């Protein structure tokens, strides 16, 4: 009797396997979540040290225009003004997004509305391929083609915000294009049919119906492209000139958060002010990427509400 | 302007914009290939790089790139497979699952330079791995995990529920259904996802500068003992990859034929990425045919 009782109360092999499988897969997931928290913890613990250990004023860090950690600035405080890099990063992101958006949306409209067959056969594969091109290759081409072009056309050394903008423009163009095309494809077919049935021309249909219905999706695409541009390091670092000066025009050498980070981290000693200040830049980068993420989620939620109405 | 004329005009402009974009993109690809392909030779692909004189190759960098790629995939595939399985098969639809998904999305949107810096702080400094293949592989894993998890989850979600029900009807547990029915059925799209992510890893540089290092010490290709520092398999040696090499010789500018070497190396990178893309499509289709006997 006890044997039967024991065998009934004991867990079956299958349920043991089941339990083990669930635990294994859950721990994989937990590991990924842990990594995210570790990233935030480590970068923040270093980045905040500038303010708590070295007692740099947060405002003077964000608004100062002298960047030369290790030496004292004109006000007797360590020269850790991150404004040139912050301005550089934002300027380059906004310029490249402004430049890329019309091209990307135009191409996406062409792909989905004007010539879907050519879009599917030529444009889509090409854009998808270009999304995968490594950023150093863009940087290399920027160095070989864009910098001389800018130097000969606009003067200056060729290194600067403008060259960075061109490189990032080409870099985010495929991403924004293919995401916009997805957004346009998601517009239901009967929207177009209804508009055409009312006697609208194709352009009226595109402009007044399709584009408006796809606004949330296209905004997401643009913000995604901006996030990519903001976080891009090497391609920008290669063409921007890396001078930690507040950019006065688009063709003078400037710098971005990422370019200073790539150059500086290896040349500073862990725990020193120079190093901590760089980690603060990394923290700004992290927070901005978080911000872009929030914007994308917000647009997505808004867009869903609009469509449900 | 009447509506018909506006329509014609807009169509013309759209044609022009699309043509311009295609020209830019094709010129980009063409430039790399035209500049780079003539540089590629057997000597270029196999000989070590020379820092101060012309005529160096990319042999060690190429090997490092592949070695790092394989290590990173070996580490990240099981983890993202497990995570993908949990998210798609076990996780219930509630706020916590939503938060977890958001966290993974945040990880995938982090700039790769931040991932690299974290790798430097955590693997290189904290775990004292130094600039090494291992640190680089871990950093690439962090970079790859969210993308791979997502593609695996999508692959699993595309398997119809009738497959799972068939498994339960046979008396299989959930885990057995997943491992014996759902994962094999999703295998073609999982493999496509893995190969596509391999293309991304292969060209990644920003995450590697401060983890795998920027130097490629000479390797002894007859020594396959992984514990020896001069062995190609040694996981603790610094390893500059192809992408890092391109960045380094361009930003330092002491190599006399830096332009030729980086053109050749860029072409090799692009060709590798193209191959990964075609391989992904071809393997996916081939496996699908093989598994479904269609």
TrEMBL record, chain A:
Its main location: membrane. Keywords: Cell membrane, Membrane, Phosphate transport, Transmembrane, Transmembrane helix, Transport. InterPro entries: MetI-like, MetI-like_sf, Phosphate_PstC, Phosphate_Transport_Permease. GO terms for biological process: phosphate ion transport. The keyword Cell membrane applies. It is a multi-pass membrane protein. GO terms for molecular function: phosphate transmembrane transporter activity. The keyword Phosphoprotein does not apply. GO terms for cellular component: plasma membrane. Residues 86-296 form the ABC transmembrane type-1 domain. It is found in: Cell membrane. The chain crosses the membrane at residues 21-44, 85-110, 122-141, 161-188, 209-230, 277-299. It holds the Pfam family BPD_transp_1. Part of the binding-protein-dependent transport system for phosphate; probably responsible for the translocation of the substrate across the membrane. Belongs to the binding-protein-dependent transport system permease family. CysTW subfamily. PANTHER family: ABC TRANSPORTER PERMEASE PROTEIN YQGH-RELATED, PHOSPHATE TRANSPORT SYSTEM PERMEASE PROTEIN PST. This is Phosphate transport system permease protein. It comes from Lactiplantibacillus mudanjiangensis.
UniProtKB/TrEMBL annotation, chain B:
It comes from the Bacteria. Residues 62-280 form the ABC transmembrane type-1 domain. Gene3D superfamilies: MetI-like. CDD domains: TM_PBP2. The keyword Transmembrane helix applies. Keywords: Cell membrane, Membrane, Transmembrane, Transmembrane helix, Transport. GO terms for biological process: phosphate ion transmembrane transport. One of its GO terms (molecular function) is phosphate transmembrane transporter activity. It is found in: Cell membrane. The chain crosses the membrane at residues 12-34, 66-87, 99-123, 129-148, 181-202, 260-280. It is a multi-pass membrane protein. It holds the Pfam family BPD_transp_1. PANTHER family: ABC TRANSPORTER PERMEASE PROTEIN YQGI-RELATED, PHOSPHATE TRANSPORT SYSTEM PERMEASE PROTEIN PSTA-RELATED. Belongs to the binding-protein-dependent transport system permease family. CysTW subfamily. This is Phosphate transport system permease protein PstA. It comes from Lactiplantibacillus mudanjiangensis.
């Amino acid at each position: 009797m006890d044997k039967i009782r024991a065998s009934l109360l004991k867990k079956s092999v299958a349920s043991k396997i089941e339990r083990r499988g669930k635990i294994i897969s859950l721990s994989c997931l937990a590991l990924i979540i842990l990594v995210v928290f570790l990233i935030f913890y480590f970068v923040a613990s270093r980045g905040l040290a500038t303010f708590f250990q070295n007692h740099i004023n947060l405002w003077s860090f964000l608004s100062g225009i002298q960047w030369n950690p290790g030496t004292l600035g004109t006000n007797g405080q360590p020269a850790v003004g991150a404004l040139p890099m912050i301005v550089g990063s934002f300027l380059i992101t906004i310029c490249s997004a402004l430049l890329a958006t019309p091209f990307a949306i135009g191409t996406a409209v062409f792909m989905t509305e004007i010539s879907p067959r050519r879009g599917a056969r030529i444009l889509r594969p090409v854009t998808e391929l270009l999304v995968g091109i490594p950023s150093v290759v863009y940087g290399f081409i920027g160095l070989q083609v864009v910098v001389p072009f800018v130097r000969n056309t606009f003067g200056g050394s060729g290194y600067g915000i403008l060259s960075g903008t061109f490189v990032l423009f080409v870099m985010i163009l495929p991403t924004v294009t293919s995401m916009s095309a997805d957004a346009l494809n998601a517009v239901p077919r009967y929207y177009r049919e209804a508009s055409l049935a009312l006697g609208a021309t194709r352009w009226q249909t595109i402009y007044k119906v399709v584009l408006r219905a796809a606004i949330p999706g296209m905004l997401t695409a643009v913000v995604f492209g901006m996030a990519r541009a903001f976080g891009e390091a090497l391609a920008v670092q290669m063409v921007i000139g890396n001078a930690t000066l507040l950019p006065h025009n688009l063709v003078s050498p400037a710098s971005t958060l990422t370019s200073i980070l790539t150059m500086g981290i290896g040349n500073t000693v862990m725990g020193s002010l120079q190093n901590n200040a760089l980690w603060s830049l990394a923290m700004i980068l992290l927070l901005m990427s978080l911000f872009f993420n929030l914007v994308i989620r917000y647009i997505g939620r808004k867009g869903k509400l609009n469509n449900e109405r | 302007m009447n509506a018909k004329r506006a329509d014609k005009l807009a169509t013309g402009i759209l044609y022009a914009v699309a043509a311009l974009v295609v020209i830019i993109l094709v010129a980009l690809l063409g430039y790399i290939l035209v500049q780079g392909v003539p540089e590629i030779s057997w000597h270029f692909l196999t000989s070590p790089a020379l820092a101060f004189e012309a005529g160096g190759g990319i042999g060690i960098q190429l090997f490092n790139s592949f070695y790092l790629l394989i290590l990173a995939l070996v580490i990240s595939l099981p983890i993202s497979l497990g995570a993908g399985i949990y998210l798609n098969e076990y996780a219930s639809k509630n706020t916590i699952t939503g938060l977890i998904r958001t966290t993974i999305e945040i990880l995938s949107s982090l700039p790769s330079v931040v991932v690299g810096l974290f790798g430097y702080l955590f693997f290189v400094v904290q775990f004292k791995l130094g600039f090494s293949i291992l640190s680089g592989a871990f950093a690439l894993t962090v970079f790859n995990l969210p993308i791979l998890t997502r593609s695996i989850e999508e692959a699993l979600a595309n398997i119809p529920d009738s497959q799972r029900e068939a498994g339960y009807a046979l008396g299989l547990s959930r885990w057995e259904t997943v491992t014996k029915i759902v994962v094999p059925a999703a295998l073609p799209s999982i493999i496509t996802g893995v190969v596509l992510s391999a293309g991304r890893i292969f060209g990644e540089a920003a995450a590697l500068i401060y983890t795998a290092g920027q130097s490629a010490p000479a390797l002894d290709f007859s020594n396959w003992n992984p514990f020896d520092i001069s062995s190609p398999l040694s996981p603790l040696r610094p390893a500059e990859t192809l992408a890092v090499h391109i960045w380094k010789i361009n930003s330092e500018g002491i190599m006399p034929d830096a332009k030729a070497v980086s053109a050749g190396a860029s072409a090799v990178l692009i060709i590798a990425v193209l191959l990964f893309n075609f391989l992904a499509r071809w393997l996916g289709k081939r496996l699908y045919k093989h598994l479904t006997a269609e």
